[in-house]
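Subject: Sanity check before I submit

Could someone independently write out the structure tokens for this chain? I want to compare against mine line by line before I put it in a report. The sequence has 393 residues.
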Amino acid sequence: MNNSLSLGKLIPVSLVLFSSFFGAGNLLFPPLFGYLAGSNLNIATLGFCITGVSLPILGVLAIAMTGGTDLTEVAAPVNIAYAKIIMFLSSMAIGPLFAIPRTAAFSYEIGIKPLLGTTEAWQLALYSALYFAFSFYVANNPSKVLNWLGKILTPALLVCLAVLFAKVLLAPSFVPGAPQDAYLNTPFLKGFQEGYNTMDLLASFLFGAATLTSIKTLGIEGKKNLIRTCLCAGLIAAALLAVIYYFLGYAGAEAHRYLSGEFSNGAGILVATAHEYLGAGGTAILSAIIILACLTTSIGLIAAIADYFHILFNQKLSKKTMGFLVALLSFLLSNFGLDMIIKMAIPVLCFLYPPVPMESILASVPLYTEGFGWFTVAVIGAAVGVIWDKMKS
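---
Independent answer below. Compare away.
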């Protein structure tokens, strides 16, 4: 029995965890909040990292502390049926119904389509077929995930990002723009809110279970050893995420030198940054960054969801079969295109995050106007839950 992993084995595990979280959405959020935060970048990044980095890593540790990979155990103290239903729906939403097919459609739209110069439907179909065939091949067993994600794809992604960041840092002195919108008066709270919107906390339970499985395959046994190893891997992954988020925000904060106007997301800012600092080769490097970020997340999600569904459905289907079904459904939906995938996801997301039209009532909830009304409700709900549990005991 091994009590700890060598650094040579711990790093790949950490990179797998990092790459699972770091998808295309995470790549596009920071340039936008950096562009809007301007000189308030540091405090905004701190808020973003609390919800976009710290909470997801805590989710991974929560799974490690259960000692198993059955996600229903985490919510078991509340209700087993609730745990199964909410985790199944969440897994489908961040898996084959939305997030996974979106990685293929998005990487094609931003990374491949500009290079082809044409918009034929068969091109997306061919690309997504190859994309998911490779994703399924790698996700099929833990050793492939470790070898490809931890030793090949993620290091390649980090190298491409490092090239971009080096160019930005070697540019003339950093002169950020003026803070805009909520970043002027409440930059920390706005950054905090943006990090929460990544929904990585929801995915952290799936990635935590997959990380635990990977660590066990390397010979680590015993609850304390598993928790300690997960903690070390989580801290390394968190450090990488935080550093990359900051430098992406940094690039956005000084982009006012060559950009102006409003942006709904960070795609335009990122494209302009790559072109500004890398010239004609910037498009190719940016394409590589986006494709690698999407591919690593797709592999991580397929592997994690296949593991969870294998347990959820009482091992009636093998992990390989589950992974194949997830990849197949993701492939089929990816061919509807990026815009249609987003539209199809709205009903599911509205169910998981139900809208409440009672604006006049909600306005009276403390912190609601700052976008944190949920925090007040969560605190009250937690207090009621603890009291109820004590009364039952």
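---
OP: Matches mine. For the report I'm noting this point. The chain has a mean pLDDT of 84.
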